[in-house]
Design brief:
The structure holds 2 protein chains of 2 kinds.
Chain A (H helix, E strand, L loop, with lengths): L3 H23 L2 H56 L3 H14 L3 E7 L5 E4 L5 E2 L2 H4 L9 E7 L2 E10 L5 E8 L1 H51 L14 H73 L3 H28 L2 H6 L1 H16 L2 E7 L8 H22 L3 E8 L3 E8 L6 H6 L4 H12 L3 E6 L5 E8 L3 H5 L1
Parallel strand pairs in A: 7-8
Antiparallel strand pairs in A: 1-2, 1-6, 4-5, 5-6, 8-9, 9-11, 10-11
Chain B lengths: L1 H13 L6 E5 L4 E2 L12 E5 L5 H19 L3 E4 L4 H9 L5 E3 L2 H11 L2 E7 L5 E2 L1 E6 L14 E4 L5 H13 L4 H4 L2 E4 L3 H9 L5 E5 H10 L2 H5 E6 L3 E2 L3 E3 L5 H12 L5 H10 L3 E3 L7 H10 L5
Parallel strand pairs in B: 3-4, 3-5, 9-10, 9-11
Antiparallel strand pairs in B: 5-14, 6-14, 6-15, 7-13, 8-11, 8-12
Helix pairs in contact in B: 2-11, 3-4, 5-12
The chains are: A alpha+beta, B alpha/beta.
């Protein structure tokens, strides 16, 4: 038991302390400071009041007792001759004077040596039991008792008169005035405590305001920075630790703002560069496609016509056969050049719009790669999107289907284009082997997906990939439409 | 927490001390005091005129009273009054059986209602005493004439040594106390008159020589503070008296008892306490000179 008890106490104290700590840390600084101030003032005030009350009560009680003794001894001395010469009226006067001149004295009376009351200050009788409640032997200096009366505690002092030969003087002194003095002092102290507490609360409120205002400013500024708003600066209230914190915070915000501006600038440069590259690429493709179509195709057609003429007019069968073979090779080359030109830049995209271009590309893919591809386009039957968006969407679908054909080993794929008032969405799905999207997106070298994301983001859009190994893949591309597009329509 | 609670408890306990004990007494429930019961045995009541202070009287006469009580086989009660006149009234009304009075009180009582001499004390082998004129030790006064315009303390209006004799002296100077002295007052006993002079409250007083001797004997320091500048011719000593209507048997018993005290060791001790040698029989003629002087001065302030 002796071993267990302290352990239990320690654990319980620790738990209690933890609970207290939790409760204390849950409230704000304002409440904490106010609580500390209030608790200190209340503790000081109440303990001081109790202490002073006790001491005052003791000191006044002792004084009262001493006064009772001195009043009684004085009465005994002055009453001696009056008793000996039997001057009852003067004796009564003396008792009355004692009562009048000492407001604390409740009663006074003289007892003769035979125990008879010969003079007293009560009107119309004498309290029962009071006579026998106290007495003094002839040799006593005095004998003081605290009597319980219906008017509260009373210091009753008995002093022998003329060594008891003339009787005994008795005086009762009430501690009512002591109580009222102690009560007045107590209420005065409590009032002081309340006033000090009020002043303390005001001071603490001011203090907490001074302390918490910069902190709250910092909190607000930190929230702003969290929202990427670097314009907020916290005012420098004081040169203390919090002031230093505010300064450090402002320096950090300024650095962040600068870094953010630099980053934005770099981003803009990069976007300009990328869009330049893409535009150049498109232009280059367009030029090559036109070249292929206009010059190479014309040359090949001339070659074909020449070879046909050669076949028709040559008499020698072996040469005719060779010319016919060459004409077939040229014809295939012309087809390849056409296809190549089409892939580089389908003129139909410029001429007939995105739906026709996609339909053609999908049909081409189906034909060339034996892949089941569904194409669905909604919301574009009677409108044209801005050329850069059409080109981007076309390239995205082209790249996606290229990926499907090259890597997915898929049986079917689907392309869905949805155009609404403010945005256009492309969804390209397949049932292939899928891939690890985390690995893909982290790999900078994978240009296919990277270029899709780049094209989407250049136009303010986004790319989302949903895929799992052996469960196919879905690409969601969303591009916002500029508002004037709606106005033009 | 627990420590704080203990401290608070101690602080509270500091304030709670001296709780009254015993049953509660009601100061408002007043009951009439019991009637003074007549004692079963009637005590012998003895009065002593206020020659000396009431307290000194009790102390000095206690052995004598105890002796009487013992010899008579009945309690003895001492009855004191402030003035000689009050004591005389007690004797006249028969409220006291035996009284020690002043010379002039006897003369007044004798002429008023026939106060009767029983015995008289004897000091230094004679039954006479003097009036002493005293002044503070540092006073330059040598005779009564030097006290003109000063403060003078009389003892009792009826006192021979304390008022009658000094008044006669002033009359001899062709004046009266009212005009001769700057101020006069009564101390009502000789003790207080001596003390008034010793302490400089009065510039002069006339006192009973027996009282003065007795006081100086008890407190030799007094002799350093006061100086006797005049001693009157001898006068009849203050006697022991009875009411004229006292039962003759009691009268005889008391007389025999007092006269026989000197022959009894217990009686001698009681006499010693009073500073007297013995009680002797005395005749009314011993007081004639005083009677004549009083007649000349008048009963009280003329």
């Amino acid at each position: 038991m002796r071993v267990v008890a302290p352990t239990w106490t320690t654990v319980s104290t620790k738990r209690r302390f933890e609970r207290l700590w939790r409760a204390a840390s849950a409230v704000g600084i304002r409440t904490k400071i106010l609580g500390i101030v209030l608790a200190l003032v209340a503790l000081m005030g109440v303990s001081a009041t109790i202490q002073v009350r006790g001491m005052l009560s003791d000191a006044l009680g002792t004084q009262l007792k001493e006064r009772g003794i001195s009043v009684t001894r004085d009465l005994a001395a002055r009453s001696t001759d009056l008793i000996l010469v039997n001057d009852r009226y003067a004796l009564y006067q003396l008792l009355r004077d004692t009562l009048i001149n000492n407001p604390d004295v409740r009663y006074a009376f003289i007892v003769d040596p035979q125990g008879q009351v010969i003079a007293h200050t009560f009107n119309g009788g004498f309290p029962a039991d009071l006579l026998t409640a106290n007495s003094a032997a002839a040799t006593d200096h005095h004998h003081t008792l605290s009597l319980a009366t219906d008017e509260g505690p009373m210091w009753d002092t008995a002093v022998p008169i003329f060594d008891g030969r003339a009787g005994t003087a008795r005086v009762g002194i009430s501690d009512v005035s002591v109580h009222s003095t102690v009560g007045a002092a107590t209420s005065q102290l409590l009032l002081t405590t309340i006033i000090v507490a009020a002043i303390g609360i005001s001071a603490a409120t001011l203090l907490t305001w001074v302390l918490t205002r910069p902190i709250l400013d910092l909190v607000r500024a930190a929230h702003s920075v969290g929202r990427a708003d670097f314009s907020q600066r916290t005012p420098h209230w004081a040169n203390d630790e919090i002031g230093e914190l505010a300064e450090a915070f402002n320096a950090m915000t300024a650095a962040l703002a600068k870094a953010d501006a630099e980053r934005a600038e770099r981003e803009q440069l990069r976007a300009q560069y990328v869009s330049g590259v893409i535009a150049a690429q498109e232009d280059e493709r367009k030029r090559i496609a036109r070249e292929l179509h206009d010059s190479t195709s014309q040359s090949l057609t001339s070659l074909l016509i020449g070879l046909r003429a050669l076949t028709d007019h040559c008499e020698q069968p072996d040469i005719r056969q060779r010319a016919e073979d060459l004409r077939l090779v040229a014809s295939h080359t012309l087809d390849d050049v056409h296809t190549l030109a089409l892939q580089l830049r389908p003129s139909v995209l410029d001429d007939l719009g995105l739906p026709a271009a996609l339909a053609r590309h999908v049909a081409d893919c189906r034909r060339r790669h034996e892949l089941q591809i569904d194409l669905a386009i909604t919301g574009l039957s009677d409108r044209r999107l801005p050329p850069e968006i059409e080109t981007a969407l076309y390239r995205i679908v082209q790249e996606s289907l290229g990926n499907v054909v090259r890597h997915a080993h898929a049986q079917t794929a689907s392309v869905l284009i949805e155009c609404s008032e403010h945005k256009v969405r492309a969804i390209i799905e397949d049932d292939g082997i899928g891939f690890d999207s985390a690995v893909i997106s982290a790999t900078d070298g994978h240009l296919g997906l990277y270029s899709i994301r780049e094209r989407a983001e250049l136009l303010g859009g986004s790319l989302m990939i949903e895929t799992e190994p052996s469960h196919g893949a879905s690409l969601f591309v969303e591009i916002p439409l500029p508002s004037q597009e709606v106005d033009d329509a | 927490m627990r420590v704080a609670a203990v401290i608070l408890l101690m602080l509270v306990l500091v304030g709670c001390t001296n709780a009254p004990t015993g049953p509660t007494i009601s100061l408002s429930a007043l009951r009439p005091l019991p009637e003074q019961q007549e004692p079963a045995v009637v005590p012998l009541r003895v009065s002593v005129a206020a020659v000396i202070s009431p307290r000194s009287t009790v102390e000095s006469y206690q052995p004598l009273l105890a002796y009487l009580s013992d010899r008579l086989g009945r309690p003895v009660e001492l009855v004191q009054r402030r003035t000689y006149a009050e004591t005389n009234a007690l004797i006249e009304q028969g409220q006291v059986d035996l009284a020690f009075v002043c010379t002039s009180a006897y003369i007044v009582g004798h002429s008023l209602f026939g106060m009767e001499l029983l015995v008289a004390p004897q000091v230094h082998d004679s039954a006479v005493y003097h009036s002493l004129l005293i002044v503070p030790a540092q006073s330059t006064a040598r005779r009564m004439a030097d006290l003109r315009g000063k403060v003078f303390a009389f003892t009792d209006p009826m006192s021979y040594s304390g008022r009658v004799y000094p008044t006669a002296l002033v009359r001899q100077l062709g004046s009266s106390p009212e005009t001769f002295f700057g101020r006069t007052f009564y101390t009502y006993n000789h003790d207080n008159a001596i003390r008034a002079v010793a302490e400089g409250v009065a510039d002069g007083a006339a006192v009973d020589s027996l009282v003065y001797d007795y006081a100086v004997e008890r407190d030799p320091a007094l002799a350093q503070q006061v100086r006797v500048i005049y001693q009157s011719p001898p006068a009849g000593i203050p006697p022991v008296v009875v009411n004229p209507n006292i039962r003759p048997q009691l009268r005889a018993t008391l007389r025999d008892l007092l006269l026989g005290m000197a022959n009894d060791p217990d009686g001698q001790r009681a006499l010693q306490a009073l500073g007297i040698q013995r009680f002797v029989e005395i005749d009314d003629h011993a007081y004639d000179t005083v009677r004549d002087l009083m007649r000349a001065v008048g009963p009280l302030t003329p």
